[in-house]
Amino acid sequence: MRSSAFMGTEGDALEGPKRGKETAVVNRNLQERLVRGLNLNLANMTSLATAYKQAHWNLQGSGFAQLHELFDQFADQTREYADLVAERAVQLHGTSHGTIEGAVKETTLPAFPLDEHREDLLLKALTDRAGVAISEIRRGIDGSEEDLPTQDVYIEIARGLEKQEWMLRSHLTG
Ligand SMILES: [Fe+2]
To answer: How many angstroms does the Cα of residue 114 sit away from the middle of ligand 1?
Structure first.
């Protein structure tokens, strides 16, 4: 369902100044760089989402009821962010590397502890990893100034992850 305004915009873009191949090459370079960054962040979102689930399942402590629920919400939210960056990569004519194996290869998050149950240590591990994920997303914001729709995806994710990190931190100090 395209509005006439959308058609008009698209038409203008297609019939715009004939900048020739140079622009196409620059755009392709930019697209490839953006796709690489999106895949790195896809790996981080996949890793972080599984970390939230791991904590959701293994958590033990007085804050169980609340944190069990909170970690599940954050896992769902982070999977949505994985979806956003993965789909943006494909919109830019790239390929999304969305498997667990792809995530292991490309993530910048440290491996999450497999046998931890204590809520304070799980909270600390999640807070640290959310912090690393935020740094990469912010790098994505800085690196996508030439492509505002991609930057918009990164900004949305930064807002959500920083809220997660704040809530995790608040439980840690509380
Ligand atoms: Fe569950």
So the answer is: 17
Domain architecture of the chain: domains with CATH: 34-173 (1.20.1260.10)
Ligand 1 center to residue 73 CA distance, Å? 10
User: 161 alpha carbon to ligand 1 midpoint, in Å?
Assistant: 21
Q: What is the pLDDT along the chain (174 residues), one digit of tens a residue?
A: 444 444 444 444 444 455 556 566 668 899 999 999 999 999 999 999 999 999 999 999 999 999 999 999 999 999 999 999 999 999 999 999 999 999 999 999 999 999 999 999 999 999 999 999 999 999 999 999 999 999 999 999 999 999 999 999 999 875
Q: What's the gap in Å between 10 CA and the centre of ligand 1?
A: 45
Report CA(109)–ligand 1 centroid distance (Å). 23
Distance CA(99)–CA(123), nearest Å, equals 26
Kindly give the distance from the C-alpha atom of residue 100 to the centroid of ligand 1, in angstroms, as a whole number.
20
Q: How far is CA 153 from the centre of its chain?
A: 9
